[in-house]
């Protein structure tokens, strides 16, 4: 039987919008700390707060919007989120103190939480059901691309232009994303179903219960990646491998780009266990290699293994989160998944930083390798042992 088309006009639009939103985030995350120090003479801890408060804002945006997407409308929510993202980008030009910049970063993060959750929900409804994991894998590559391009673009602009130009480029990208969002066509709930939904701050309305188990495992895996994302550059300085470290995320992103399409197809055909367990092992091996790294080749080999591991776990866990719920709950499931993932990437560096002061970098990465192995057991207990029954119910 011929499979349903995946690369439709609307799929490309929503993936493009997601790429542009994430591109601005990664462009600014590498320069905003330096901006706080140079423009306002902030301390290192204040600069860290300026960078990290964005994630808290993103979490707040997701918590609120998850249950309201289908009330407001999926396209309206996406347009509203991208419009708010562009408007809050303008506020960087108006900030005049560290305190004001922190507020701007929080608001900017909240807008990203709304826009990216809406994009994730929209694409879950655009992708054909028989190609869900494959489609989400391709969609997630938009974030992977931005994570490779954004930091390099931000650092290049930092060397060749003023901060105002960096903020102007961010605004231009945001506006392009808003214009693209207006062209999207996405299935919506009918009026009767919308009328049945409303905002209520309770566990069942803020988090999708069925998506929580896999989101918990994503949180655990996210801590492993947070240890790399936050500390790889400092670790490389200690090892005198700074030049090689500059290529770490390029290798990581390239491996994810090459592997994610076939891991998505493999999950659709064989189930999530076939992908999750090997990827957890690859992630553990990459972190173990990082704990023992002694050369540039070893560092980049660790990047490749971590890319094969976490890079694919992220998209597979996301696919599971939206597969276990009804179409009407996909918005909340998307929000739930990213709340847990953002929490690990946002709060993880602070918690792991405290650990580093006690045990050092090498022991930290050994501990993270052990955590990656534990992810296998956690996934099996929380979801993996039910995969065969779920696939039978879906007719696979």
Describe this structure in words.
It is a single chain. This protein has 396 residues and is mainly α. The protein has helices spanning 9-29, 32-40, 44-65, 69-72, 74-90, 98-126, 132-160, 163-181, 191-195, 203-206, 212-239, 242-245, 248-270, 273-291, 296-323, 330-382, 387-394. Helix 1 (9-29) packs parallel to helix 7 (132-160), helix 7 packs across helix 15 (296-323) and helix 14 crosses helix 16. The longest helix is centred in the C-terminal third of the chain and has 53 residues, at 330-382. This is MFS transporter. It is a multi-pass membrane protein. Its main location: membrane. Keywords: Membrane, Transmembrane, Transmembrane helix.
In short:
With 396 residues, the chain is an all-alpha fold. The chain is built from 17 helices and no strands.
Uncertain segments are none
Task: Bin the helical content.
Answer: over 70%
Mean pLDDT: 85
Number of strands: 0
Residues in β-strands, percent: under 5%
Task: Give the quaternary arrangement of the chains.
Answer: single chain
Order of helices and strands: HHHHHHHHHHHHHHHHH
Count of discrete alpha- or pi-helical segments spanning 4 or more residues:
17
The gross shape turns out to be globular
- What kind of sheet is the major sheet? none
**Content-based structural category:** mainly alpha
Through-space gap between termini:
13 Å
Radius of gyration in whole Å, from Cα? 20 Å
